[in-house]
Amino acid sequence: MAEHYILSLDQGTTSSRAMIFNHAGQIVAKAQKAFAQHFPEPGLVEHDAKEIWSTQVSVLAEALAQSGIAADQIAALGITNQRETTIVWDRASGEPVHRAIVWQDRRTAKYCDSIRAAHGDTIRAKTGLVLDAYFSATKVKWILDHVPGARARAEKGELCFGTVDTWLVWNLTEGRTFVTDPGNASRTMLFNIHTLQWDEDLLALFDIPRAMLPEVKSSSEIYGHTAPRFTNRPIAIAGIAGDQQAALFGQLCLDKGMLKNTYGTGCFLLMNTGDKPVDSQHNLLATVAWKIGGKTTYALEGGVFVGGAAIQWLRDGARLIREADEINTLAASVADNGGVYFVPALSGMGAPYWDQYARGSFFGITRCTSNGHLARAVLEGIAFQVYDIVKAMEADAGQATAQLRVDGGASQSDYLMQVQSDLFAFDIVRPRITETTALGAAYLAGLAVGFWQSTDELRAQWQADKVFSPQLPPERVQKMLHYWHKAVKAAQHWIDD
């Protein structure tokens, strides 16, 4: 009997990837393709939704071809995706009415400011979210308000709205399946995380017709099957999770109090809070982690808008490096940061500051400053942001953290992980398989079809690759944190409202 596998589609902010996992949770094939980033004006970030789809279906085919695995050997397909990114398309033709508005986009910041006093508390109580341009609701509203005829068409039921997971499932099934999961829905600012339903009051507030929204299913069940022309034979689409929820699941943070941080384009730290959402008192977010078998698990989340994207900027904007991993060599060329601090507020600041008008800044530059100091400051700036979130999370949860599980591209930087451990004074653990986002989607899909029988079976697969323990003296760490917070204060509210 032929061996079976799980196919995972990992649609990220800068690239689309496909991975095939065996029963041991090991990667047997992987394909990746980047797509264009569009920046029409400062603060605006867009993607071509059709390019997202074309790159995703392309790497799906490439992974199957590369592995020699036949479609009938794929037990199920799981999807994980960049969250909050907003796509509106024609229900009949499948044609997007506007470019996808990316989660980083700030075009609705002033609108958020204008309604915050009247509606901010209500939105937070219902959704667990801080009112911010980051989330999908104001992006949908903007499209309906600015694309000629879009609102009238939406009211007639002619348009669909979805986050990227919904867009991919729609296309994979050739329009037969229009769904999302509670984790992705909880990032739209339209979903009530207590009732687990689209909220009519919020739909009315943002003037978004209910008919545009997908059906909310669980995170692990069979939603439909791929059209044969994409995969030769139909494959069950059986798992959906936003990238950060998928990483939490892939890291097997299945128990209350466990937490992980993903060092991707942004940095996103999630703590499993069990079967109840936590009402944060420190500007963190309550979100749905996943829903499996009728049981909903929640998480406390802190998001850094610019994590690995700061390294990309150093490569593509400042052009101090040619390849992303060169930052480690450059940082190692100096003994310390030379008193230079970098606030990576290239898209404003997320938790716990929530400052839409902060901007990226270097502080402490002197005639002695070298490119090595700048590289160190960029890596340290990522770690400092994560530190602030963990401290806020500890305060909300009422407990100290003993360990942080990490994943994502930038987690491969040993220097960054060591700095992170030094700041926290506890262990940072990098797993053997760092593709935990794709793995989490694979786990969810595999559980739905019986490929894996239980989460207990999955727990046995997690293995640590490297543990980073603190090395810097506490007084040195406190000095670094002093200057970091001084830099943050200077970078905040840089743009006048």
**Biggest sheet: strand arrangement:** 17-18-16-15-21-22-23
**Mean pLDDT, nearest integer?**
92
Q: What is the helix fraction of residues, given as a range? A: 25-40%
Query: Stretches where pLDDT falls below 50 for ≥5 residues?
Result: none
InterPro entries: ATPase_NBD (IPR043129), Carb_kinase_FGGY (IPR000577), Carb_kinase_FGGY_CS (IPR018483), FGGY_C (IPR018485), FGGY_N (IPR018484), Glycerol_kin (IPR005999)
Function: Key enzyme in the regulation of glycerol uptake and metabolism. Catalyzes the phosphorylation of glycerol to yield sn-glycerol 3-phosphate.
Keywords: ATP-binding, Glycerol metabolism, Kinase, Nucleotide-binding, Transferase
Binding site for sn-glycerol 3-phosphate: 13, 83-84, 134, 243
Your description of this structure?
- With 497 residues, the chain is of the alpha+beta class.
- Helix content is 35%, strand content 23%.
- It contains 16 helices and 23 strands.
- It has helices at residues 49-67, 109-127, 136-146, 150-155, 164-172, 182-185, 200-206, 228-231, 243-250, 308-316, 326-331, 371-397, 414-424, 436-448, 455-459, 474-491, and strands at residues 5-11, 15-21, 27-34, 46-47, 74-81, 87-90, 100-101, 159-162, 179-180, 191-192, 197-198, 215-216, 220-225, 236-242, 259-263, 267-274, 285-292, 295-304, 341-343, 361-363, 403-407, 427-431, 464-468.
- The chain has a seven-stranded mixed β-sheet with strand order 17-18-16-15-21-22-23. Strands 3-2-1-5-14-13 form a six-stranded mixed β-sheet, with helices on both faces. The chain has a two-stranded antiparallel sheet with strand order 4-7.
- Helix 9 (243-250) packs across helix 14 (436-448), helix 10 runs antiparallel to helix 12 (371-397) and helix 12 packs across helix 13.
- The longest helix has 27 residues, at 371-397.
- The protein starts with a strand and ends in a 6-residue tail after the last helix.
- This is Glycerol kinase.
- Residues 260-448 form the Carbohydrate kinase FGGY C-terminal domain.
- ADP binds at residues 13, 17, 265, 308, 409.
